Amino acid sequence: MTKLSRPPQRSQRSVFRRKRRLPVGMVIRQLIVILLLLAGGIGIVVLLQRWPEQVDLMLLVSEAISDLISGIQLLLSAMLGLGGVVLIAALVMLAGVLMIAGLWRMLRLLKLLFFPPPHQGRR
Predict the structure, then answer these.
(1) CA angle, 34 as apex, 33 and 38 as ends, to 5°?
(2) What angle is formed at CA 11 by the lines to CA 9 and CA 17, rounded to 5 degrees?
(3) Contact 30, 24 (CB under 8 A)
(4) Exposure check for the chain: N or C terminus, fewer CB within 10 A?
(5) What is the pTM of this model?
(6) Residue 12 DSSP class
(7) pLDDT (tens digit per residue) in 32-82
(8) 41 vs 123: CA distance, rounded Å
(9) CA 107 – CA 5 distance, rounded (Å)
(10) Distance CA 58, CA 51 (A)
């Protein structure tokens, strides 16, 4: 190898270099995040632990379930009512179509009876 193609030599090889230290800012930021997460979790646990003293938790849960069930019943009854309305509307439209078709055929028959087409001979 010539001097021009040889890579520049470093003072130390990468194997013997000192390891880089962690940046102080990153370590402090991670510690702050850890403390905030732990404080939030502990605060929620304390809140849940003291909550039954202030509110009857079983009553609250049972009322929520009762409200949920009554809401589902109302939704189902509303859907059943809507289905009934759609069924009635479909029956009304079917009746209208059947009556129009019957009237049309009756008019064609009356036209055929009262005004017969001219009789054509054999060709």
Answers:
(1) 115
(2) 115
(3) no
(4) C
(5) 0.45
(6) S
(7) 999 999 999 999 999 888 877 777 777 888 899 999 999 999 999 999 999
(8) 100
(9) 104
(10) 11
Q: Which helix (H) or strand (E) holds 40?
A: helix 24-54
Q: What is the 3-state secondary structure (H, E, C) of 44-90?
A: HHHHHHHHHHHCCHHHHHHHHHHHHHHHHHHHHHHHHHHHHHHHHHH
d(CA 123, CA 119): 12
- pLDDT tens digits, residue range 85-118? 999 999 999 999 999 999 999 999 999 888 888 8
Measured distance CA(71)–CA(65) in Å, rounded = 10
Structure tokens at 45: 């646990």
Tell me which residue has tokens 């059943």.
80
Distance from CA of residue 109 to its chain's centroid? 57
